[in-house]
Each structure stands twice: as C-alpha cells, then as structure tokens.
Amino acid sequence: MKILLIANSFTKNMKEATNITILNYARELQRRGHQVIVVAEKRKYLPAFEVFAGVPIYRHPFPFSNTFMKKIAGIQLTLRQLKRNHFYPDIIHVFSSSMLLSLNGILAKRMFPKSKIAHTVKSESQFSHDRYFSFLLKFVDLITVATKRQA
C-alpha cells in the first residue's frame, strides 16, 4: 500500500514530539511492507528531497513568505510533483494542530480521488479562531485526536 504522510512541521530536530512520532510511524509502516513518503514544509536549511533514517522526505519550495500559504501551497506543489512521478497514494495521513490545515488533505483528495484521507489533530491550535474551521473535518474520512477534550 502507498501511504503519504503530510506533516508541515517535520524537521530534523529529533527532540520534537512530532518528528519522533512521524518518523517512528513511517518506519513501522515500512517494516510492514508499505511504501511511505513524508511531505513537509520547505525550510531554508532543509533540502527539497532527502532520505532521513530510511524515510523519503519531500519539501517543495514556495516563493512567497506568507506562512499559511507556504503550509498549503507548498504542500500542494509537492503533491503535484509526486503525481507527475506516478506516485498515487492509497492513504493520505495529515498531521497538524490546526483544523484549517486539514485543507492539505482535502485538496490532496481532489488530486488523488481514490485515496482515503486521515487527519490527526495532534494538539491544541495556537490559532484562536481555529474552531470556526472545524466544519472542514467533515470532508475527511478518518479523524484521530489525542484527548477527549479535543474530541
């Protein structure tokens, strides 16, 4: 099975919980025989493509400095590049603290209509108006949360 993990905040800082979780998750999926690719936001000090601890990571540079646009459009440009390389995922799993970033999965579903979308809300969002975007989760196939309060 081809699995695409979208994690905007994935960097090489292995002290951060998100990195540890996603990397361990990707490696376990690979151990079970799945093809896994991580797509993350491009940062200045990180390459556009690398294999980190056996997991391929793609980051597409986005020319504008608007952080929100980088988190959405940069990911979508990366997905378009993967589609050109004939990678069609069966599952797209989005990790974010903001429900607004579930747009990455929703837009990916338009690009890969046969894929199933999972969204993991990993923590409380720092964006105060995030609760107004909870309706976006209706377009996701599976939602996982960390606490009962978030549910």
List the helices and strands and how they pair.
Layout: E1 2-7, H1 17-31, E2 35-41, E3 49-52, E4 55-60, H2 67-84, E5 91-96, H3 103-111, E6 116-121, E7 142-145
Parallel strand pairs: 1-2, 1-5, 2-4, 5-6, 6-7
Antiparallel strand pairs: 3-4
Helix pairs in contact: 2-3
Question: Top keywords for this entry?
Answer:
about 30% helix; 3 helices; about 150 residues; globular
Number of helices: 3
- The N- to C-terminal Cα distance equals 29 Å
Q: How much is the radius of gyration in Å?
A: 14 Å
- The counted number of beta strands is 7
| Largest sheet features | 7 strands, mixed
Task: List the secondary-structure elements in sequence, H or E.
Answer: EHEEEHEHEE
Based on secondary structure, the structural category is alpha/beta
Q: Looking at the structure, what is the overall shape?
A: globular
Mean pLDDT: 83
The helix content, as a percent range, equals 25-40%
| Uncertain parts | none
Strand order of the largest sheet: 3-4-2-1-5-6-7
Strand content range? 25-35%
